[in-house]
Specification:
With about 140 residues, the chain is of the alpha/beta class. It has one domain: Rossmann fold, CATH 3.40.50. It has helices spanning about 20-30, 45-50, 70-75, 115-125, 125-140; strands spanning about 10-15, 35-40, 55-60, 80-85, 105-110. The protein is globular and about 35 Å long. InterPro entries: CheY-like_superfamily (IPR011006).
Length: about 140
């Protein structure tokens, strides 16, 4: 997938809970821009997918076992925008362990539609993103 193809957004979801994945799946069905959604439930599967695909957004449930590992953080850092999800349990876990995941945004579970929409808005409606795509495609065509 072309990273600058603003007609489709690619998203990797690492979430071991069915309710988390279902919320993202439901959101993706109703969003105005097509979302290429790749669901993973384990860190190993997530790492494998990162090796073969490029994603615009990675949504990681930090409560998934081994999600805070440095090697996963390093693999994620090379793949676009990173969004870290926390559970709704209070108090929130300290995020100092995610040094390799910076910059990240914190998204609380259960996922709300407006919060998920805020993640996608810059990827689908940004004039800057459209300008980058236009400039890149002009260079490719030799214009």
């Amino acid at each position: 997938m072309d990273l600058f193809d603003f007609n489709t957004v690619s998203m990797l979801v690492l979430d071991a809970t069915e309710d988390g994945v279902a919320a993202v799946r439901e959101f993706a069905r109703g969003w105005t821009t097509p979302i290429d959604l790749v669901e993973t439930a384990t860190v190993d599967d997530c790492r494998r997918r990162l090796g073969t695909h490029r994603f615009d957004i990675a949504l990681i449930d930090i409560d998934t076992p081994r999600a805070a590992s440095d090697d996963l953080g390093e693999a994620l850092r090379r793949h676009g925008r990173i969004f870290v999800a926390a559970t709704s349990a209070q108090p929130l876990r300290p995020l100092s362990q995610f040094k390799t995941l910076r910059p990240y945004d914190l998204l609380l579970k259960p996922y709300r539609r407006d919060a998920l929409g805020a993640l996608f808005a810059p990827m689908t409606r940004s004039p800057r993103r459209s300008a980058r795509w236009w400039s890149t495609s002009r260079r490719r065509s030799g214009a």
